[in-house]
Design brief:
The protein is an alpha/beta fold and 265 residues long. It has 7 helices and 14 strands. Helix 6 (179-192) links the parallel strand 8 and strand 9 (195-199).
Length: 265
């Protein structure tokens, strides 16, 4: 089974401009496809920008809204799957969400951030209630979560137990928490025997300073791709054969003793 070449779009786009961010996504999808990628992953709230405050309810869209339709067209035009962060409206509630659209334009999965970070997110979003959301793509089981979610070991372990091969984590990681990209994400990949694509915003945005450092970490804890501190499109491969061999050799999941862990819940 061939590896899934994955493109990580490290960018903050254009704050508050859905139209410009769709153009940026289209351009990145074209570059990703030209480099042989089958999947493009954009950061948390890429569609609108993160620090848009009271504009979040105005710019929020349903999962099947006009931007989803536009991104489906982008995916089909370039023959590449696209995962993107956006504010999702569902009735009166707004969620911090990520949606995965397949290369044929099919909406494959939609995930709502379960662990909201800080007063800003808690003031503007409703937390999601489904921890594990997955889809099949390129022979891999793809899992979705967002930023702060990956910092909870139980969250990622739930994905490991559900068979996630490649975990997509659009993020808005800010200073001074860059150690998450540097250290936590590779450890999560290693201890759970999966690939983790952690895709960050970059630069100053309102009161926030995003640190970049997007990475695709492998099940051996080694980065297959690592961005710096500026806008970049970087590539790494999620190789199912390497993953299977790594899982065979790494005993973490086999050696678990769930009967000892009841106190965790």
């Amino acid at each position: 089974m061939p590896a899934l070449r994955t493109a990580l779009l490290q960018s903050s786009g254009q704050l508050g401009s859905v139209a410009e961010n769709l153009k940026g996504l289209d351009d990145a999808a074209g570059r990703a496809a030209a480099a042989g990628a089958g999947l493009l992953v954009a950061p948390e709230l890429f569609l609108t920008g993160y620090a848009i405050g009271d504009d979040i309810p105005r710019l929020a869209e349903p999962a099947d809204g006009p931007s989803a339709a536009a991104i489906a067209e982008i995916a089909v035009r370039h023959g590449v799957a696209v995962a993107y962060g956006y504010p999702e409206r569902d009735g009166e509630r707004v969620f911090n969400s990520v949606q995965l659209i397949g290369p044929d334009g099919t909406r494959l999965a939609n995930y709502r951030k379960t662990h909201l970070f800080g007063c800003f997110e808690r003031d503007h979003f409703t937390p999601g209630e489904q921890a594990v959301v997955q889809a099949e793509l390129g022979g891999l089981r793809i899992g979705l979560m967002i930023c702060y979610d990956v910092e909870f070991p139980e969250n990622v372990r739930a994905h490991a137990l559900a068979g996630t091969d490649l975990l997509l984590v659009p993020t808005a990681q800010m200073h001074p928490f860059q150690f998450v990209a540097d250290s936590v994400v590779p450890v999560r990949a290693f201890e759970n025997q999966m690939y983790v694509a952690y895709v960050n915003r970059v630069g100053k945005e309102g009161e926030f300073e995003f640190v970049g450092l997007s990475t695709l970490a492998g099940p051996d804890g080694v980065a297959r791709a690592r961005a710096g501190r500026d806008e970049q499109l970087v590539f790494g491969d999620a190789d199912p054969e390497f993953l299977a061999a790594s899982r065979e050799n790494n005993p973490y999941l086999r050696d678990r003793r769930p009967g000892l862990y009841a106190s965790l819940i």
